[in-house]
Write a structure and sequence with these properties.
The structure holds two protein chains of two kinds.
Chain A (H helix, E strand, L loop, with lengths): L1 E6 L6 H9 L4 E6 L10 E4 L19 H11 L3 E5 L1 H8 L6 E3 L7 E9 L16 E7 L3 E3 L2 H9 L3 E6 L18 E5 L5 E4 L17 H19 L1
Parallel strand pairs in A: 1-2, 1-3, 3-4, 4-11
Antiparallel strand pairs in A: 5-8, 6-7, 6-9, 9-10, 10-11
Chain B lengths: L1 E8 L6 H12 L12 E6 L5 H16 L5 E8 L1
Antiparallel strand pairs in B: 1-2, 1-3
Classes of the chains: A alpha/beta, B alpha+beta.
């Protein structure tokens, strides 16, 4: 798998994302926000950080960068796009994912490990995630409270687009386990066609035991497997 | 010519900042505050003197970029 990791001014999880992919034996390279092409990328990761200083709104300015026009085209052609934290905010601002991320309900910046319940394992981002326990992955954000109007929330649920919900260590989705006030405890979603996903937690910060968890790898391994299956299907 | 744009959170969106400011006002002894909504104010200086064109362009920019219609409303005013 050949992954393009976008770099905006003030991206700060770009190195981590590249590291996480490379340690799984796949190639990853940085793509600067002024680039108009993603080259031969098989997948795109929009990393966390504070693109353009989060001025105006998180992700609002990044969304209009040249590279995002290439990402839009890539996504329209069925390419896999994963947005992490600020990357999730960029994808909602770009309209590639529904809803928006607003200020955490307690106004605090939360930097901690959380547990995630995976609701749909039939997507390129979740197929390798074990079903017997929740994922343990860190969050680090001040504006991660997922909001969407009631019709959008209903559609997300009906289409199984809610991929991850904040839960407790036993997998129970409770208000106490919701770190930011997200509606329906939503931590991550995908689009209708299942090729674009975003989540506030940071899988790249949970990619080896030294980081306290390697659960994030399940998400990257899911993407790798989905792409390999696609390549096999193409060759057949 | 100048444009003023006021962006406010939609009523359906929880506004913890507004709520916190409201609580602070109450703690300070200001009574009768029903609600506080914290938004943004943008002042845009324009070279053009054509109000209608300016309004049309800024409405588009406000809808597409300066506000996020999923979570925010805006008011646009052109002033001399």
């Amino acid at each position: 798998m050949n992954v393009a990791v976008l770099q905006f001014p003030a991206s700060n999880c770009d190195q981590d994302a590249v590291h996480a992919i490379r340690r799984l034996g796949h190639s990853a390279r940085f793509v600067w926000h002024k680039e108009h092409s993603l080259g031969d990328a098989d997948a795109v990761i929009i990393p966390g950080g504070f693109s353009y200083g989060d001025y105006l709104r998180c992700g609002a300015i990044a969304r209009f960068s040249p590279v995002m026009q290439a990402v839009r085209q890539f996504a329209d052609n069925g390419g896999l796009v994963l947005g992490v934290c600020n990357g999730f905010q960029v994808l909602t601002e770009a309209g590639l994912l529904p809803g928006a991320l607003v200020r955490n309900r307690d106004l605090q910046f939360h930097c901690e490990h959380v547990f995630l319940k995976t609701l749909n394992r039939d997507t390129p981002f979740t197929r390798r995630i074990p079903s017997d326990r929740p994922l343990r992955i860190p969050i680090a954000h001040g504006e991660g409270c997922y909001f969407a109007d009631p019709e959008t929330l209903e559609r997300l649920q009906k289409n199984n687009q809610v991929l991850w919900q904040y839960c407790d260590a036993s997998g129970n989705v409770t208000d106490a386990a919701n770190p930011n006030g997200s509606l329906l405890n939503i931590a991550g979603i995908c689009n209708e066609t299942r090729n674009v996903a975003g989540l506030m937690p940071h899988p790249e910060r949970a990619c080896e035991a030294a980081l306290g968890s390697s659960d994030g790898n399940f998400i990257f391994e899911s993407m790798i497997e989905a792409l390999q299956n696609k390549a096999v299907a193409r060759a057949a | 010519m100048k444009a003023r744009i006021i962006v406010t959170p939609k009523k359906a969106v929880v506004d913890p900042q507004g709520k916190t400011v409201q609580n602070a006002l109450e703690h300070m002894g200001y009574q009768g505050v029903k609600a506080v909504h914290v938004g943004k104010y943008l002042e845009i200086e324009l070279e053009s003197t054509d109000r209608e064109t300016a309004r049309r362009q800024l409405e588009e920019a406000a809808h597409k970029f300066l506000s996020n219609p999923v979570i925010e409303d805006y008011k646009l005013e052109i002033v001399d």
